[in-house]
Amino acid sequence: MRIVPLTLKCLLGSVFVFAGVNHFVRPAFFISIMPPYLPWQLELVYLSGVFEIALGVLLVVPRTTRLAAWCLIALLIAVFPANIHMAMHPELFPDLGSLALWLRLPLQGVLIAWSYWYTRPLVADCRA
């Protein structure tokens, strides 16, 4: 039974590492999805990329899994305004399509729930 939680934890960590690396590969895209009222947009893109990479790695380290999971939840909440901005302004993202922009909103909830799973001690250690 340990293999499923461990595999899912590694998958989730990989999702965040991949997303974080993309902040450095395609910063212009991430700047474009930020609400215009946020200052220092390039710096925030890089900072969020660093956090996504670090937390994705820390998630798979047993000693830091629970802390990383809680921090990922906080990060997902912090970046949620960018997803709302995208959904409210589909004309700015014609390549993505309106439906995809709206589907990003509940996807955040899925990622939060998935991260929350690893805040539980037995699951975080992959014993359950």
Tell me about this structure.
By secondary structure, the chain is an all-alpha fold. The protein has one domain (3-124). Helices cover 75% and strands 0% of the residues. The radius of gyration is 15 Å and the shape is globular. The termini are close together. The model has no long low-confidence stretch (mean pLDDT 91).
Quick description:
By secondary structure, the protein is mainly α. The chain has one domain (3-124). It is built from six helices and no strands.
**Backbone shape:** globular
- Count of separate structural domains: 1
Q: In angstroms, what separates the terminal alpha carbons?
A: 7 Å
Task: Provide the gyration radius in Å.
Answer: 15 Å
* Total of DSSP H or I helical runs spanning 4+ residues: 6
* Major β-sheet annotation: none
Number of strands: 0
- Approximate helicity band: over 70%
Q: By helix and strand content, what is the structural category?
A: mainly alpha
Spans with pLDDT under 50 lasting ≥5 residues?
none
Topology:
Elements: H1 3-25, H2 27-32, H3 41-59, H4 65-88, H5 98-117, H6 121-124
Keywords:
mainly alpha
